[in-house]
């Protein structure tokens, strides 16, 4: 075990809250990502603790000390302490008794090394007590300095315990890995890639979305494709991995926004996925309703380009029928596709101007509703919809400028002429 490095915890703004936990749980240590990020001198998202005491005892000790405790996951040994508006997860040290690739049966332990041994990567298996001393059982500090992502112990064993670690590997490799992963690790991932199928769609998408918006996404997707993982996550890309990744790379190269829906749409569009395939993909991965709608809509038509959206009236007509975010996404994809195939006849400035007009133009709203047509003496029924459709098309043809009074005048004219 390496214990060479110390962390100056006193410099942290949350140190008074951390110290309060140590006041009641002196054997507790910061664990996982908090230690890793503190060693890297980067912002810490969550300060999580490990402790030898069982969860019921932890809850009792903290409550007796006047600290609010939430029983976050007692069956997994986790409670949440709330101190000065900060939430701290505190988990009893565990060892795995039995795993099936998705769930683990655990037993409490007082052995810190046993608890560290069940973690995924060496850089996430370190712990740190109140004195700032880093406890490192598997060389995580060295791997962090070398920008290397390495499984704790045997990679295949860690993956069989929880297949989600395959996807976590690529997420952490993109964020912290500075070198090509060793072939032994990639071989282990490739051999176990099929285990991804056993994972819930929600867990898979939770990792994929972080990979898509994370650093070095193109390189990570290429590694995933090489090891067979990308095809397990996205069967829609099978045989078209290269073109799918190429469109995403083009999107990033031309400055496309770091948006998970847009990047997923780029992958699917790059693979030539049909609208039906895209719909099946987003529903299979169980995206949120808004997320699924975004991806599907970004893959649809019409597609704004500098040739078919030349002026303000063209933009107004587009915005009247389609959400702004969908049109913007389609424009970015069209631009990325053009650059991917070397179609440089459209200047970069023209694409930028189009995106600016889409962003700045106020969304037009057709000023009439069915009740307005009924008020003109038309009986409720199909005829109301027919008249509305004709008036709306007239409004669109005119660039969506006319207000309610002009639209009503045109509606009266249509009714008077009997058309």
From TrEMBL:
Nucleotide-binding keyword on record: yes
Cofactor(s) this protein requires: Mg(2+)
Domain Poly A polymerase head, chain residue ranges per copy: 28-150
Family from the record: Belongs to the tRNA nucleotidyltransferase/poly(A) polymerase family.
Keywords linked to the UniProt accession: Magnesium, Metal-binding, Nucleotide-binding, Nucleotidyltransferase, RNA-binding, Transferase, tRNA processing
tRNA nucleotidyltransferase/poly(A) polymerase RNA and SrmB- binding domain ranges (all copies): 181-237
Name this protein carries in UniProt: CCA tRNA nucleotidyltransferase
